[in-house]
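Bumping with the actual sequence this time:
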Amino acid sequence: MKRNYKIFLLGLLLAVASCSFTTNKIETDGDSDKDEVLIELISFVLTQGHYSPKDINDEFSQEVYKDYLNGIDPRKRYFLKSDLKDFESSKNKIDDEILAHKIDFFNLTYNRLQERLEDTKGFYAELLEKPFDFSKKESINTNYDDLDYASNKKELKERWRTQLKFSALSTFYDLKEQEEKKVEDDESYQPKSDKDLEKEARETTKKSLDEFYSLNDDLERKDWFSLYINAIVEEFDPHTFYFAPEDKERFDIQMSGSLEGIGARLQKRMDEIKIVDVISGGPAWRGEELEVGDVIQKVKQEDEEESVSLIGMPLDDAVSLIKGPKGTKVVLTVKKVSGSIEDIEIIRDVVEIEETYAKSSMVEKEGKNYGLINLPKFYFDMENRKNRNAASDIEKEIIALKKENMDGLVIDLRNNGGGSLSAVVDIAGLFIKEGPIVQVRSGDNKVEVLPDTDDSILWDGPLVILVNELSASASEILAAAMQDYKRAIIIGGKQTYGKGTVQGVVDLNRWMRNSDLGDMGALKITRQKFYRVNGGSTQLEGVKSDVVVPDRYSYIDLGEKDMDNPLPWDQIDSADYEIWDGYIGFEETIESSKKRMAKNEQLKLIDESAQWIKEQRGVETFSLNYEEYKSQIEESEKKAERFDVINDYNSDLTFTSLPYEEELFKTDTTLAEKRTRWHENLSKDVYVEEAIHVLEDLKLNNIKKSKMATIKD
C-alpha cells in the first residue's frame, strides 16, 4: 500500500498555471541516485519558479533541521540526546547538501530512526505486560514541543510508560462508562471487574501499537524521503508541497470531484489526524457531530470489538481504516474542538456532489421576502467550461429569487475554502456594473488586474456576505471586492482565513531527459499573490468583517497566520475603481448592527463558549490517577452543559425552498428531507438572523431598469 503523510486541502484555488521559467533538461545516467536527482530538480524548480524564493543558507538549514526532526519524532519518543548530538553537526550543512544535491543528513537520520523504532518495539510489549496502578498519584504533560529528548534508554522507557498508561487510562475510563451504562439499562447485568477492565484497556493499547509498528514496517525508504523533501519545500511557504507519484494520482482523483467515505477531509498535523473540512451532503455532515478541528483518535469497524488508535499513523492508512463500503458502520473516537472525548457512529455512504453546489432559500420576515444563497465552494470544471460552475449557478439562483420578489440577498461563504479564480470574478460581476475585482501579482512583480467583463448588474439590491475564520482564498476575494466597493456589508469573525496566494502543480518529469529513474512526481508551488482592488493583500490579514460577531472558532488558531512560514502581508497600488453609490445610510446600518450584536445574549453565550473551548484546548497536564482523571473529565462536561442551550436558539424567520425545488420534492424525497433539515438549522442561526436585520436596515437609491440583467426563461 502506498502511503503519504499529508493531504493537500482542495478548494483553495484550482487555477493550475503552467510554469513560465526555463525548461532546461536535467541529464541523468544509469548510476544516478534518484533521491539526489530529485533534490537537484526540486531545488531548481523552487529557486526558479516560486513567487518568493528563499535563500538556501544556514538559517534555512536550521529551520529544515528543526521541522524535519519534529515531523518524524513529534512526541520525542524515539531519538535520544546522543542522537541529536550526532545530528547537530548537520544543522548548518543541510543547505550545502541541497546545493550539492547530497542527502547525507537524511541518510543519517533515516538509519538512526530505524534503529530507534526497533528499540522501542520491545518497550511497549514489556510495559503492557504488567497492570497499571490507576490509584497512584502521577501526571503527564502533553506539551511535547517543550519536552526535551530523553538522556538515555531508561529515561525514554519511562516516557513510554507514562504515555502508555495515559492511553490505557483513557480506554479504561471509556470501558467503565460503558459498563455503568449497561447496568443502568439492565439491573440484572453483572459488570466486569476493574481488574478485567484494566487488562482489556492494556490489550487495546497493545493492539493499537501492534498495528502502528506493523504499518511502520511496511513503509519504504522513499516514504520517509518524501517527508524530508516536504520539510525542505514547506520552508518556502505552507502551500508548497511535493507529491510523490502515487500522491499525484490521488490529487488528480480529488480534483475530479470523486468523493466517498464519511464525507470529511483529513490532514495529518504532528501525529494527529484532524478534520479540516466536512463535506456538505456527506454522512458526517448529515450526522452533525463531526466538525472542523476535531481530532480522530481511534477507529472501530462494525465487526470489531476494539478500536485501532490513529496516533502516529500515516494519513493514508488512517484514511483506509475510516473509509469503507457504502452502508457499513464505523465508530470514531474523537477529541472534540472543546477538548471532550466522544464516540461518533457514522454509516458510510457515497458523498453526493450535488450537495457541494450552491443552494438557496427564501426567507420571510414580517411580510417581506429575502434571499439566501449558500455557496460551499467556488467550483469550476477546468476540462469543460460549458459544465455547471459556481458563477452560472449563482446567476440562476438570483434570477429565481428575483422572481419571488426578494428585497435583499445574503451570500453565505462560511467554511468556503475557495476554488476557481474565474468563478469568483464572474460572481462579483453580478453585483457591480464594471470595474476591477482582484489584482494578481507574479514573482517578477508584474500585476494583472482581473475586471468584471459584463457591464450589466444582475442584483442591485441590498447585499450581505457572511464569512468566518474558515472562509479562504476565493471567498476572501469576493468579500474583499464587495467590501472595497461598499457594495455589501460583511458579517463574520474578526477576519477570514488569510490565504492570499495562488498555487500551480508542476510535473517534475518535464525536466528529465534520457532518464531511467522512473516517475519523479510533482510539485505544488506558490506562483502568485492576490491583492484587493484597494491594493491591500488578503494574505495573513484576510478580510476584516464590517460587523464582527463571535463564533466557536474566535479564539482558536486556524488561519494562515498560524501556519509555519506564511508569506508576509504587503500592499501594492490601488486599482482604479468607483465606490458603489446605491446605498443610503450604509455606515449607519453597520453601526446599528454592531449595537444590536453587542446586546445579543445568544452571541454573548457563544463568545463565552469560544473562550471556554480555548481554555480546554490549552490544558496540557493530565492526571494518571483514575479518580482525578474522572473528576477532570466530569468537571469539563459539566461546564460544557451550560452551553447546550446555544442549540436551542430559534429566530422568528421562515425559510422555504424555491418553486423549482418544490417541484423536485414530489419525486425526490431525499432532497426534500435535506432542505427541511437545512431550513431548521437556518432558523437557529443567529448570524443569518442578523444578516436579515441588516438587509432590512439598508435603503437603496433607485437604479434604472436598463442596468439590470435580463431575466432568462
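The C-alpha cells above came from a reply further down the thread. The longest strand covers residues 522-531.
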